[in-house]
Specification:
The complex is a heterodimer. Chain A is mostly helical. Chain A has three domains: 79 residues, NADH-ubiquinone/plastoquinone oxidoreductase chain 6, subunit NuoJ (Four Helix Bundle (Hemerythrin (Met), subunit A), Up-down Bundle); 32 residues; 39 residues. In chain A, 71% of the residues lie in helices and 0% in strands. The model of chain A has no long low-confidence stretch (mean pLDDT 81). Chain B has a two-stranded antiparallel sheet. In chain B, strand 1 and strand 2 form a beta hairpin. The mean pLDDT of chain B is 91. The chains are: A mainly alpha, B mainly alpha. Chain A: Belongs to the complex I subunit 6 family. Chain A: It is a multi-pass membrane protein.
Chain lengths: 202, 478
């Protein structure tokens, strides 16, 4: 067993355990942190597979940006956990049994032998990973890449359509009017006759 | 690198993409009472795209972007009818949306993006393209279902659709990853070539099972039908009309690409699986539909049963079977727009006309609409000489030709059961006394014209089915 394989098993075990934690932990903040761990150990597995760019992108984009946003959302939502988990314990044995049977069946069918085969590396030319990925993305996979961009556009449109609401009677700022304001309409200089103050008594 | 030929092959899709983006920008500058501009521009865009599809159709199947995109006869027929169905949906839904303050520019943008997803999906030449086209379609559909934010039922339906849809996409991707593992390629043609000599036949078969699960979900075939009734009922009727029509053509296109173009070598295996899905869909769809009081739910279960009929043709696995299935998909899309269109036409502010009891005595109030609804119901039931009858005959013949006589017998029995609940609607319209507030049909002229043309087409195509069938057969002949 090489060191690489040992690392792979270690990271894979951490990934699986952390993923289990995401769906079983009671505290949703802990669940999000587990998800961060899942992403992180997945990135480590990708590093082992020599997909450096993907690993770095996963850490930077998902762990760095998306999950932090997630954490904010979860902290703000203040979800009551108990009612959500009513049926959880009751269905847990059945769920585990089904999952175990499915896993056993799949392993029996596909066999560990098939998995032991190492697939050919995606990059036979031996370029740097980033150069190869970039070139493939903009030549062979140009069309899927552009469609992925369209899907993101639909995501934005859907988010706007589902959340943007024009509310009546809400106070809001209008920067254009704020900038264009004339000082004379805001500040009124009042001329007053000077007044003699009361002499302090003694 | 893409060449000019690649771009020309993709011209209809590129035009639609550009036009949707323009429409999105134009709509921002319009007031709410000027939305008719967006509406008619969207219909125009669909028409122009349809013209580009037909006029630029190459004589022989052409691929673009290194096999990612296939433009052949099948894609042409499916695109033309998907565009037609989307156009019908747009025209039928305008009065309904206007009455409910749902007449948003985003409705048009999302429908057009979903149609773009359909066009890319039915032209996919690679597993990546199938997945991306499907996501473009379903993501737009989730948002459309949730469009009515103030309705609890609508939000519930959207969440259910989203969660189950994500699960099905996961299944599909899992199956695709196994197929990639077994064949080492994402290109559908190469997968078909490699599947015969694959070193991992069990892995391939395993991937196939997951593909079938994904396909079954997208069709709404039993036992993957659980989302369908809730989504049909909960979504605004205009959106239900869309989900019930054009995406069924996309589902057929996806199944054809995956099963024939990609997994054609495993025909004996998926034939059996589709037969099981067909029997379950026919039985569950038709029997549960009898118990429904809500018209939209009843039509949802009727969809499930119709997907069973469609699988009869698909399971045949020959060009004749595929053309029968495609004919059925087209027929179903037109019947769905007609039957949901009646609900759209009868709905008004504060009244959905979605219970079967709401149609009581429709014949006395509005004989023309009652007649159109009767046409749609008879066609769904498969009564001669309507369109639905001939489509059913074709898929039954395909099943018998494939040596699945038992399946054809089950399908005929299911059709007899189905006759009951379709005729129930007709009985309510013609023989029951009207009660409650009088039903008033929408007076919008474009809706009346399109709905009447749609329902009458079911009769006309039932009598002159020849050209359409010949077109479907030509698509698979090449």
């Amino acid at each position: 067993m090489t060191f690489q394989l040992l690392c792979f098993y270690a990271f894979a075990a951490v990934t699986t355990l952390a993923a289990l934690g995401v769906i079983t932990l009671r505290n949703s903040v802990h669940a999000v942190l587990c998800l961060v761990l899942t992403f992180f150990s997945t990135a480590a597995i990708w590093l082992l597979a020599e997909a450096e760019f993907l690993a770095v992108a996963l850490v930077v984009v998902y762990v760095g940006a998306v999950m932090v946003l997630f954490l904010f959302v979860v902290m703000m939502l203040d979800i009551k956990q108990e009612p959500l988990r009513e049926g959880f314990i009751r269905y847990l044995p059945v769920g585990i049994a089904v999952a175990a049977v499915m896993l056993a069946e799949m392993l029996a069918l596909i066999g560990v032998r098939a998995m032991a085969q190492v697939p050919a590396p995606a990059n036979p030319a031996g370029d740097s990973n980033i150069a190869w990925l970039g070139e493939t993305l903009f030549t062979r996979f140009l069309l899927p890449f552009e469609i992925a961009a369209l899907i993101l556009t639909v995501g934005i449109i859907a988010a706007v359509a589902l959340t943007l609401r024009r509310r009546e009677g809400v106070r809001h700022q209008d920067p254009a009017r704020q900038v264009a304001v004339d000082p004379r309409t805001r500040v009124r200089v009042v001329k007053m006759a000077a007044e003699r103050g009361q002499e302090p008594a003694a | 690198m893409p060449t000019l030929n690649d771009i020309l092959t993709l011209l209809p899709e590129l035009y639609l993409t550009g036009a949707v983006c323009m429409l999105l920008l134009i709509d921002v500058f319009l007031q709410a009472d000027q939305r008719w501009v967006t509406h008619w521009l969207a219909v125009l865009v669909l028409a122009v795209t349809g013209w580009l599809v037909v006029s630029g159709q190459p004589t022989a199947p052409t691929t673009a972007f290194g096999g990612m995109f296939v433009r052949d006869g099948v894609a042409e027929v499916l695109k033309v009818f998907a565009l037609l169905a989307s156009g019908i949906v747009l025209v039928l839904s305008r009065p309904y949306l206007r009455d409910r303050e749902l007449h948003l520019g985003e409705f048009y943008t999302l429908i057009l993006f979903a149609t773009l997803g359909i066009m890319l999906l039915v032209s996919a030449g690679s597993l990546v393209m199938i997945y991306l086209g499907l996501e473009l379609l379903t993501l737009s559909s989730y948002a459309l279902v949730a469009l009515n934010r103030d309705s609890r039922l609508s939000s519930e339906a959207a969440i259910k659709y989203f969660v189950l849809g994500a699960l099905a996409s996961g299944m599909l991707l899992y199956g695709m990853s196994m197929i990639y593992g077994a064949t080492g390629t994402l290109d559908l043609g190469s997968i078909r070539a490699a599947s015969a000599t694959s070193a991992h036949p069990t892995l391939l078969l395993f991937g196939l099972v997951f593909l079938i699960v994904g396909i079954g979900f997208k069709f709404g075939a039993a036992p993957f039908h659980m989302w369908l009734p809730d989504v049909y009922q909960g979504a605004p009727t205009a959106v239900t009309t869309f989900i019930g029509s054009a995406p069924k053509l996309a589902a057929f296109g996806m199944a054809y690409r995956l099963l024939d173009s990609g997994m054609g070598g495993l025909l004996v295996h998926w034939q059996e699986m589709l037969a099981v899905l067909a029997v379950l869909s026919l039985a569950i769809g038709n029997i549960v539909a009898i118990a429904q009081k809500n018209l939209k739910r009843m039509l949802a279960y009727s969809t499930i049963s119709h997907m069973g009929y469609l699988f009869l043709g698909l399971a045949n696995g020959t060009p004749a079977g595929y053309s029968a299935a495609m004919f059925y998909a087209i027929c179903y899309a037109l019947m769905a727009t007609a039957s949901f269109g009646i609900i759209l036409a009868l709905a008004r502010t504060g009244f959905e006309a979605e219970e079967i009891a709401d149609l009581k005595g429709l014949n006395q109030r509005s004989p023309w609409f009652a007649g159109l609804m009767a046409l749609a119901m008879f066609s769904l039931a498969g009564v001669p000489p309507l369109f639905g009858f001939f489509a059913k005959v074709l898929v039954l013949k395909a099943a018998i030709d494939a040596g699945m006589l038992w399946l054809a017998i089950v399908a005929i029995l299911a059709a007899i059961v189905g006759l009951y609940y379709y005729l129930q609607v007709v009985k309510v319209m013609y023989f029951d006394k009207p009660e409650g507030e009088p039903l008033r049909a929408q007076v919008d002229p474009s809706l009346r014209v399109v709905l009447s043309a749609n329902a009458l087409a079911l009769l006309v195509l039932g009598l002159w089915w020849g050209p359409l069938l010949a077109w479907c057969q030509r698509a698979f002949a090449g």
